[in-house]
């Protein structure tokens, strides 16, 4: 569902709600930390992200541990473990190696769930037709990518993001690069449960 070049705001039950800003990624060899938008920009609707399985909530990042939305989502989704990560030069060991790794197309056999406490960055996710969709996250965004969804992550030109990682089970990372992820149960279930539901095919 491609949209015109406008930013859409809609009201949530708790007041003004800011949707994730998402657009069709323009593939170039430029710095991955740049927005990579087409001209004119081709925005992607929140519904499109939802259909692909992305979930988004807004959290009071300064008081996240007591934020009612955070507590509700944590309970509903069954998150048990949390870890905090700061992705910034000097704050993350092996910054270059790890940021290169985050930007390699991969999937996880579990939900990727992150709450952004400070800073900003971009997730790229694969559309039905294998195009990249990029969405921006900043302070207060809590996002979840479903198990089996191919994606990658980069900081933006500010080179700084601090996030809470939420896990349902063990907080050990399992990153499976494409195409190795194709044969995983998580990938098969993603295609069946998420893509087939909307009669979409990769
Ligand atoms: C901002 S969280 C670090 C990136 C990450 O953990 C991941 O898996 C990206 O896809
Ligand atoms: Fe990931």
Automatic annotation (TrEMBL):
<feature type="binding site">
    <location>
        <position position="108"/>
    </location>
    <ligand>
        <name>Fe(2+)</name>
    </ligand>
</feature>
<dbReference type="GO" id="GO:0010309">
    <property type="term" value="F:acireductone dioxygenase [iron(II)-requiring] activity"/>
</dbReference>
<feature type="binding site">
    <location>
        <position position="151"/>
    </location>
    <ligand>
        <name>Fe(2+)</name>
    </ligand>
</feature>
<keyword id="KW-0963">Cytoplasm</keyword>
<keyword id="KW-0560">Oxidoreductase</keyword>
<feature type="binding site">
    <location>
        <position position="112"/>
    </location>
    <ligand>
        <name>Fe(2+)</name>
    </ligand>
</feature>
<dbReference type="GO" id="GO:0005737">
    <property type="term" value="C:cytoplasm"/>
</dbReference>
<keyword id="KW-0408">Iron</keyword>
<dbReference type="Pfam" id="PF03079">
    <property type="entry name" value="ARD"/>
</dbReference>
<feature type="binding site">
    <location>
        <position position="151"/>
    </location>
    <ligand>
        <name>Ni(2+)</name>
    </ligand>
</feature>
<dbReference type="InterPro" id="IPR014710">
    <property type="entry name" value="RmlC-like_jellyroll"/>
</dbReference>
<dbReference type="GO" id="GO:0016151">
    <property type="term" value="F:nickel cation binding"/>
</dbReference>
<dbReference type="InterPro" id="IPR027496">
    <property type="entry name" value="ARD_euk"/>
</dbReference>
<feature type="binding site">
    <location>
        <position position="112"/>
    </location>
    <ligand>
        <name>Ni(2+)</name>
    </ligand>
</feature>
<keyword id="KW-0028">Amino-acid biosynthesis</keyword>
<keyword id="KW-0223">Dioxygenase</keyword>
<feature type="binding site">
    <location>
        <position position="106"/>
    </location>
    <ligand>
        <name>Ni(2+)</name>
    </ligand>
</feature>
<keyword id="KW-0486">Methionine biosynthesis</keyword>
<dbReference type="GO" id="GO:0005506">
    <property type="term" value="F:iron ion binding"/>
</dbReference>
<keyword id="KW-0479">Metal-binding</keyword>
<comment type="similarity">
    <text>Belongs to the acireductone dioxygenase (ARD) family.</text>
</comment>
<dbReference type="InterPro" id="IPR011051">
    <property type="entry name" value="RmlC_Cupin_sf"/>
</dbReference>
<comment type="function">
    <text>Catalyzes 2 different reactions between oxygen and the acireductone 1,2-dihydroxy-3-keto-5-methylthiopentene (DHK-MTPene) depending upon the metal bound in the active site. Fe-containing acireductone dioxygenase (Fe-ARD) produces formate and 2-keto-4-methylthiobutyrate (KMTB), the alpha-ketoacid precursor of methionine in the methionine recycle pathway. Ni-containing acireductone dioxygenase (Ni-ARD) produces methylthiopropionate, carbon monoxide and formate, and does not lie on the methionine recycle pathway.</text>
</comment>
<dbReference type="GO" id="GO:0005634">
    <property type="term" value="C:nucleus"/>
</dbReference>
<keyword id="KW-0533">Nickel</keyword>
<protein>
    <recommendedName>
        <fullName>Acireductone dioxygenase</fullName>
        <ecNumber>1.13.11.54</ecNumber>
        <ecNumber>1.13.11.53</ecNumber>
    </recommendedName>
</protein>
<comment type="pathway">
    <text>Amino-acid biosynthesis; L-methionine biosynthesis via salvage pathway; L-methionine from S-methyl-5-thio-alpha-D-ribose 1-phosphate: step 5/6.</text>
</comment>
<dbReference type="GO" id="GO:0010308">
    <property type="term" value="F:acireductone dioxygenase (Ni2+-requiring) activity"/>
</dbReference>
<feature type="binding site">
    <location>
        <position position="106"/>
    </location>
    <ligand>
        <name>Fe(2+)</name>
    </ligand>
</feature>
<dbReference type="InterPro" id="IPR004313">
    <property type="entry name" value="ARD"/>
</dbReference>
<feature type="binding site">
    <location>
        <position position="108"/>
    </location>
    <ligand>
        <name>Ni(2+)</name>
    </ligand>
</feature>
<dbReference type="GO" id="GO:0019509">
    <property type="term" value="P:L-methionine salvage from methylthioadenosine"/>
</dbReference>
<keyword id="KW-0539">Nucleus</keyword>
């Amino acid at each position: 569902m491609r949209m015109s070049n406008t930013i859409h705001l809609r009201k949530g039950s708790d007041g003004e709600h800011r949707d994730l800003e998402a657009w069709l990624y323009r593939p170039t060899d430029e710095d991955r930390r740049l927005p990579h938008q087409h001209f004119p920009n081709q925005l992607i609707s929140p519904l499109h992200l939802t259909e692909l399985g992305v979930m988004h909530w807004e959290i009071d990042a300064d008081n996240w541990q007591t934020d009612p939305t955070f507590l509700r989502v944590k309970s509903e989704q069954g998150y048990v473990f949390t870890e905090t990560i700061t992705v910034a030069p000097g704050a993350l060991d092996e910054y270059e190696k790890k940021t290169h790794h985050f930007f390699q197309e991969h999937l996880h056999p579990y939900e990727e769930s992150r709450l952004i406490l400070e800073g900003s960055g971009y997730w790229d996710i694969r559309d039905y037709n294998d195009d990249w969709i990029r969405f921006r996250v900043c302070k207060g965004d809590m996002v979840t990518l479903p198990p089996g969804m191919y994606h990658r992550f980069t900081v933006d030109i500010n080179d700084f993001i601090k996030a809470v990682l939420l896990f349902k089970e063990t907080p050990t990372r399992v990153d499976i690069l494409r195409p190795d992820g194709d044969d995983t149960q998580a990938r098969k279930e993603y295609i069946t449960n998420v893509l087939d539901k909307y009669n979409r095919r990769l």
